User: Which sequence fits this backbone?
C-alpha cells in the first residue's frame, strides 16, 4: 500500500523547500516567487523504520526493503483558485488522487520572503486553502445532482446511494464545514470515497517554523496546533529550512547536527508517523536471509489481508501465518530462538495483525 500525501499551501510558505528536504533531492525549484512549481512534483520516499535494520541484522538479510510513501508537491494555491485564479483547477485535480493532504502553514517571519497576501497569518492561510477546496467540492457535487436524481427516480439503487451521500456532503459544505465533518456510516465508506471530495481527505497541518523555533515552536505554530485539535486534524512542527540542510548530510553528521538543535529526529520521521496515525496504518515485517522488508497495512487488517499486500495469491490461498512479535524476535535472536521458546504462533484467518509482527505466510494456490 503506497501512501500518497499532497503537500498543499499558499505560495512561499515553504512547500517546495519541504518537498526537497523530504525527498532529499532538488527536483522542485524553491524560489521566492509564486508558482515556481508548475507541474506537480512527485517524490517516492523510504519510510524511516529503525526496527527494520534490527531485524535485518538478526536475520542476516542481504537486502533491506523499507515501505514507501509518496509526496506530491502541488503548486501554490491562491484566493480564487477554484474559479481559475492563479493556476486554477488543474492543481486541485492533482490533490484528488492523494490519500491525505498536508497543509503547510507559514509560521515564521522573514522580510526577505514575500507573502502572496502581504502578511504572515497561518490561520488565515488555512482558511483560504480550505475555502478554495470547499468551493471546488461544491461545484463538483452540484453538477452531479440533476443526473443522479434522474437515475435514482428510474430505480438505480447505486445512484440513490450516491445522491444521499452527495446531499450529506452538500449539507456540510453549505454550512461552511469541510466534507470530513460529515458522519458517514461504515457501510457507506466505499461510495463516500468514490465521491473523491477534496475536503473529505484526512488533514495534516504542517507548521513550518524558523530555525530558532524548531525545538519548541512559537506563537504562530501554537495557534495552528490548536486549530488542528479543534478541526480533528493532526499537526506536526517542522523547519523546512533545517530539514533541507539535514538532507545534505551523511548519517553521522546528521545525528550531530540534530543534537546541536535539541532535536531527536528529522522532521520527516515525525511527519510520516503522523500521516500513518492519520490514516490508521501500521507496519508488519518479513525477515529472512534474502531480505528484510516492511509492509504497510491498515490497523485492524486480518492475516489474509496482510498476506494479500505481498501478493493476491497469498490471500486467496491463505492457510496460516507463522507470527512472532517484534520484541520476541529480537530478544530471542530470530526465528529459531522464538520457535524453541514457543513464541512462534500459528495464526489463522481471523487473526488481527499487530504493529511490528514478524510474519511468514503459508498458502496454497
Assistant:
Amino acid at each position: 500500500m503506497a501512501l500518497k500525501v499532497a503537500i498543499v499551501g499558499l505560495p512561499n510558505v515553504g512547500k517546495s523547500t519541504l518537498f526537497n528536504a523530504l525527498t532529499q533531492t532538488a527536483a522542485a525549484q524553491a524560489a521566492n516567487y509564486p508558482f515556481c512549481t508548475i507541474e506537480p512534483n512527485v517524490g517516492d520516499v523510504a519510510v524511516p523504520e529503525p526496527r527494520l535494520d534490527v531485524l535485518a541484522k538478526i536475520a542476516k538479510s542481504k537486502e533491506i526493503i523499507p515501505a514507501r510513501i509518496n509526496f506530491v508537491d502541488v503548486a501554490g494555491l491562491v484566493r480564487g483558485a477554484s474559479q481559475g485564479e492563479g493556476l486554477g483547477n488543474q492543481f486541485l485535480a492533482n490533490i484528488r488522487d492523494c490519500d491525505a493532504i498536508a497543509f503547510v502553514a507559514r509560521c515564521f517571519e522573514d522580510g526577505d520572503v514575500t507573502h502572496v497576501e502581504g502578511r504572515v497569518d497561518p490561520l488565515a492561510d488555512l482558511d483560504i486553502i480550505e475555502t478554495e477546496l470547499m468551493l471546488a467540492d461544491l461545484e463538483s457535487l452540484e453538477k452531479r445532482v440533476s443526473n443522479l436524481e434522474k437515475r435514482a427516480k428510474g430505480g438505480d439503487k447505486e445512484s440513490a446511494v450516491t445522491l444521499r451521500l452527495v446531499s450529506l456532503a452538500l449539507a456540510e459544505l453549505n454550512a461552511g464545514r469541510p466534507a470530513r465533518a460529515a458522519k458517514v456510516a461504515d457501510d457507506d465508506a466505499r461510495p463516500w470515497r468514490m465521491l473523491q471530495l477534496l475536503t473529505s481527505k484526512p488533514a495534516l497541518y504542517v507548521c513550518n517554523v524558523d530555525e530558532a523555533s524548531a525545538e519548541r515552536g512559537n506563537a504562530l505554530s501554537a495557534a495552528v496546533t490548536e486549530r488542528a485539535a479543534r478541526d480533528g486534524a493532526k499537526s506536526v512542527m517542522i523547519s523546512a529550512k533545517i530539514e533541507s540542510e539535514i538532507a545534505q548530510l551523511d548519517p553521522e553528521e546528521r545525528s550531530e547536527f540534530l543534537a546541536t538543535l535539541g532535536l531527536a529526529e528529522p522532521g520527516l520521521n515525525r511527519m510520516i508517523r503522523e500521516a500513518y496515525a492519520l490514516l490508521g496504518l501500521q507496519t508488519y515485517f518479513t525477515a529472512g536471509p534474502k531480505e528484510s522488508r516492511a509492509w504497510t497495512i491498515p490497523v485492524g487488517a486480518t492475516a489474509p489481508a496482510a498476506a494479500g499486500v505481498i501478493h493476491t495469491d497469498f490471500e486467496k490461498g491463505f492457510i496460516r501465518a507463522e507470527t512472532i512479535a517484534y520484541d520476541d524476535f529480537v530478544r530471542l535472536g530470530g526465528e529459531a530462538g522464538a520457535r524453541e521458546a514457543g513464541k512462534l504462533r500459528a495464526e489463522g484467518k481471523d487473526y488481527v495483525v499487530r504493529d511490528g509482527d514478524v510474519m511468514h505466510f503459508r498458502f496454497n494456490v
The mean pLDDT is 86. Residues 162 and 191 are 7 Å apart (CA to CA). The radius of gyration is 23 Å. Residues 122-153 form the longest helix (32 residues).
